[in-house]
């Protein structure tokens, strides 16, 4: 019986992630009115989908280390794209929210994401897209479950 090449799938996922990031950065930068980097747009995208987030929340959502994120958040705040609010119940906890300028950058990010999605799914039927997404969700769940089992 032939041995399965599990590394190939991981390699393809890594390559697709890298290409996806490069193409998003290109599509995003080409738009009029863009005033943030594609890396900063990940933070803006998350904040656009949540009322408020802490540095920890953003770190988990974006995959950026907290120290890297702290520098990025400061730059976004100084530029007027986000605001920092103190938690009323815990003065040590800081929340970040989008400003109107941040919401405009989020709209530009969404446009680039839509363009990227059209490229990403080119040649796939709606059923193929759904099957692909279901398989990716299962892979993510399998990996998450395994990581959580290791913490017990």
From TrEMBL:
Write down the InterPro entries for this protein, in alphabetical order.
ArsR-like_HTH, HTH_ArsR_DNA-bd_dom, HTH_MarR-typ, Tscrpt_reg_MarR-type_CS, WH-like_DNA-bd_sf, WH_DNA-bd_sf
Record's keyword terms, sorted = DNA-binding, Transcription, Transcription regulation
**GO MF assignments:** DNA binding; DNA-binding transcription factor activity
Record's keyword annotation contains Transcription? yes
Mind telling me which SUPFAM superfamilies this protein's record contains? Winged helix' DNA-binding domain
**CDD domains recorded:** HTH_ARSR
Residue ranges of every copy of the HTH marR-type domain listed in the record: 5-141
Top-rank taxon, per record:
Bacteria
By what name is this protein known?
MarR family transcriptional regulator
